[in-house]
Amino acid sequence: MNETTRRKFLLSSGLAALSAAAPLAAEPEKKKDLFVHHVYFYLKNPDSAQDEAKLREGLDKLAKVPTIQLAHIGSPAPTNRSVIEKGYSVSWLCFFKNLIEEEIYQTHPIHLKFIEEYSHLWEKVVVYDSIGPKR
């Protein structure tokens, strides 16, 4: 095999190998990356223990959505630094295997019922969604 032909062969076989692997490399990130969904609820009546308890009741029900891997209901911690946001009443943190699983959660009947039954309690909701680092 002469040098020119050998180079062409190596180049073409390398391109063939890359094209065979391309579907794996091009797999949508929405199927691969851990998805974190963090919601901060600002209650209309932030001093109402009853409203907070009611919201927590709803979040306990919401935690039953099957695509949720782990859920945590929280309150502002007793920490005091200028960068800490403490104006919210309740936080809702949940983890999903990927974006697709989170999208299922968004349209799941339990989630839709939660919004319908409990949205009257809050004046504002702030959501932070994140995925793992780019590889």
TrEMBL record:
What are the UniProt keywords, alphabetically?
A: Signal
One Pfam family named in its UniProt record: Dabb
Alphabetical list of SUPFAM superfamilies matching this protein:
Dimeric alpha+beta barrel (SSF54909)
The residues covered by the Stress-response A/B barrel domain are 35-130
Q: What is this protein called?
A: Stress-response A/B barrel domain-containing protein
In terms of InterPro entries, this protein maps to: Dabb, Dimeric_a/b-barrel, TAT_signal
Instruction: Give the residue spans that cross the bilayer.
Output: none
Q: Where is the signal peptide?
A: 1-25
Q: Which organism is it from?
A: Rhabdobacter roseus
Q: Which domain of life is it from?
A: Bacteria
